[in-house]
Design goal:
Layout: H1 9-30, E1 39-42, H2 50-54, H3 67-78, H4 87-99, E2 106-109, H5 111-120
Parallel strand pairs: 1-2
Length: 121
């Protein structure tokens, strides 16, 4: 399997970790200048086209070792049960970041994101 054929799950996770680390660093660096930095962390949002946009980029279905994981990801994209994130949830989180001087660095947007953040802590 070549690098181009690798599933993009690890690349996506690594890029998200980089965004989180950059945000944390910027928050510390910008605080002396009175600039607040936050990261809005939305959950799964079936209302958006993220899942369908990501589908052509998922690789690994042709590899027996990766196929079960990729099939699970696809099933998650299609699953409409359980809590999800709505556009209004993201708007509320952005408003909180902009308007509340005591807003946390990371702001969950959507009921599912709130649950995920609680699990991580």
């Amino acid at each position: 399997m070549t690098l181009k054929q690798l599933p993009l799950v690890s690349v996506y996770c690594a890029s998200q970790a980089a965004v989180n680390a950059l945000t944390e660093s910027l928050a510390v660096e910008m605080e002396p200048f009175g600039v607040r930095v936050h990261i809005v962390l939305p959950g799964r949002s079936p209302q958006t086209s993220f899942g369908s946009s990501a589908m052509p980029h998922l690789r690994g279905l042709d590899d027996a070792d990766y196929e079960p994981m990729i099939e699970g990801i696809i099933a998650g994209f299609r699953d409409e049960s359980g809590p999800v994130t709505h556009a209004a949830d993201v708007a509320a989180a952005v408003w909180l970041a902009a308007a509340d001087l005591n807003a946390p660095l990371g702001i969950a947007a959507g009921e599912d994101a709130v649950h995920w953040m609680a699990e991580v802590r």
